[in-house]
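User: For my dataset I need records formatted as: sequence, then structure tokens, nothing else. Please produce one.
Assistant:
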Amino acid sequence: MEYYYLCLFAFILIGYFIVTDSSVAKGFYLVTKIIESKYQLAKWWLLHNPANPVVKYMIWRRSMNLAKKLQREFDARNKE
């Protein structure tokens, strides 16, 4: 028996239980929501963790741009 037949049978069996039993459908929905929230948490952590060098560079670049902008404003006020 090929591997994809076994996977197809498993998906059909799971689909049958989801369609016929409402508690299994609710459980499946909640499990997918948990998996989705764990994925979002991991994605957020990778994109916002300051230990990540890419994020560290993005924070540094944003800070330097803000510092340059503020320096220009302060210089403009001091010239007046």
